[in-house]
Design a protein that fits this description.
six-stranded antiparallel sheet, Beta-Lactamase, about 500 residues, 15 helices
Length: about 500
């Protein structure tokens, strides 16, 4: 105890306090009785002094009254000085050893996280590991790692421990974590009871909170939050180390974004490649529309896809292909859509697209589907209006700009194929009508191009030559069997002369 005046005087003055006889010492009654019980009759107090100050005292006791000689006092003072240095060195060693051990532990954690970071594809497990290390290192019972959504201005919890969360999304306008995101700097609160912005998720048990934003190249990606039941729990060293973990967590977020972006691009390229392979050389309009519908479903996981063809006479879009999910029976696509109705939503987007229509405004397009939004993409090729695509998408589904770009690319690609299919259909119908006329004539009609190839032969020619249509078409006229040429009124020589004349115009 340092309550007796001798020891207090020793520590304050830094000089020895010598008591040759117990009866004359500066002791209180209880201390005097205690020493007498121990048989102590004299004592001396020598301060333990280091360059940094006094750290204690050395007490020397005698069982009889004692006269302190100068050489004896000098020796005891030297003893006390050496003892003070030994204690100071031991303390310093223990402090350095503890700090070194702590730093080694920090480096080990960072190395482990870094190794996992380079190998991990999914960030979820890495987030859990980073949070676990942060909690264990700081002896924190509560913590969470949340990601920041810039568009929604919210934080979504990705890893959590200790909390009983009733929700996993929080506005950055609230709480200390939100403040850390807004300020883009660490928030270290020693007593959360004095902080009105603190959101209590610990039933009043929390006392300290440390929230450190996850920042990569100036962009806030999330926040790492720790809470303790101790006041002023987080030191500057704790904050510095947790900041390093937050930096690694930010790298994990960026890696996850890059991986997700790569997967998205691969998926887009896969869809576009599939569309192009199915459209190449496909003149069938029904098949082209089916490819369009399947591609839109794959790109957006839509509830319903309707493909409409333009009726120029009625100024309407008439449904030509309907792909509806069985899980959404209420999402019935309209049979007809008036162009005038579309113009009431957004006149310019009717021609360029996409047109987004909410459930409250899109009764004509959505019918009784109250949980859907409508997306409209015009089908245009060479400035010709071909039709439109109508998608029913869940209302809560946030369609990203990248998804819209993919849908535009699909629609643009398919529009050209639809136009070609329509042209092919028109040509086919025209050819069929011409064939019907030619076959009704009671004479043989043969059409030869300037290269001498047969491009058309009616049924009468096939009959008199006894050759099928396949045997005649795309064959050089002069190479027909001699008998067939004679049936047509030509010898081989005359046929060659005819072809020469055709070639010369």
């Amino acid at each position: 105890s340092v309550t007796n005046s001798g020891r207090m005087r020793c520590l304050r003055s830094g000089r020895p306090v010598l008591t040759p006889a117990l009866s004359g010492g500066p002791l209180e009654m209880d201390q005097l009785e205690l020493m007498q019980q121990e048989g102590i009759q004299a004592y001396g107090e020598f301060p333990l002094t280091t360059p940094d100050g006094h750290i204690g005292f050395l007490s020397v006791y005698f069982d009889a009254p004692h006269t302190f000689r100068s050489e004896e006092v000098e020796l005891l003072q030297t003893f006390a000085t050496q003892a003070a240095m030994a204690v100071s060195n031991a303390r310093l060693y223990a402090h350095v050893d503890m700090a070194l051990s702590r730093r080694v532990n920090q480096l080990s954690i960072l190395e482990t996280v870094g190794r996992e970071l380079s190998a991990a594809i999914s960030s979820e497990r890495l987030f859990e590991m980073i949070l676990s290390y942060a909690l264990d290192f700081t002896n924190s019972p509560w913590g969470e790692l949340s990601l920041f959504h810039a568009q929604e201005r919210t934080l979504t919890v990705k890893a959590s421990r200790g909390y009983k969360l009733s929700r996993t999304q929080f506005s950055i306008r609230d709480g200390l974590a939100g403040r850390a995101v807004n300020a883009q700097q660490a928030i270290n609160v020693g007593d959360v009871r004095l902080e009105p912005a603190h959101i209590d998720l610990t039933e009043g048990l929390s006392r300290s909170q440390l929230s450190i934003p996850l920042i990569h190249e100036g962009r806030v990606l999330g926040v790492l939050t720790l809470e303790s039941d101790r006041l002023n729990a987080y030191t500057t060293n704790d904050q510095a180390f947790i900041s390093q973990l937050a930096t690694q967590a930010a790298v994990a977020v960026v890696n996850a974004e890059l991986y997700s972006e790569t997967q998205r691009r691969l998926r887009e390229q896969s869809i576009l490649y599939l569309v192009s392979t199915r459209l190449v050389g496909n003149p069938n309009l029904e098949s082209v529309m089916q490819t369009l519908a399947r591609s839109m479903e794959a790109a957006l996981q839509t509830s319903s896809v309707g493909i409409y063809l333009w009726d120029d006479n009625e100024s309407t879009y008439q449904i030509a292909f309907n792909s509806q999910s069985p899980s959404t029976p209420d999402c019935i696509l309209p049979e007809t859509v008036l162009y005038a109705d579309l113009e009431t939503y957004h006149p310019s987007l009717v021609k360029t697209g996409p047109l987004r229509i909410s459930p409250k405004r899109g009764k004509e397009l959505l019918g009784d589907c109250e949980d859907c939004q409508a997306l409209v993409f015009p089908l245009i090729a060479s400035k010709q209006r071909l039709g439109m695509v109508l998608l029913h998408v869940p209302h809560k589904r946030l369609v990203q700009e990248e998804e819209l770009q993919l849908l535009r690319a699909i629609v643009s690609q398919v529009s050209i194929s639809m136009q070609n299919a329509m042209l092919f259909s028109d040509v086919t119908h025209g050819r069929d009508r011409l064939a019907a006329v030619l076959n009704s004539v009671g004479e043989g009609i043969l059409m030869i191009d300037t290269g001498g190839l047969i491009v058309l032969a009616n049924e009468f020619v096939q009959k008199i030559t006894a050759l099928s249509r396949e045997d005649l078409l795309n064959r050089r006229f002069s190479s027909l069997p001699e008998g067939a040429l004679l049936d047509l009124g030509y010898t081989v020589h005359e046929a060659e002369i005819l072809l020469q004349d055709l070639g010369q115009g």
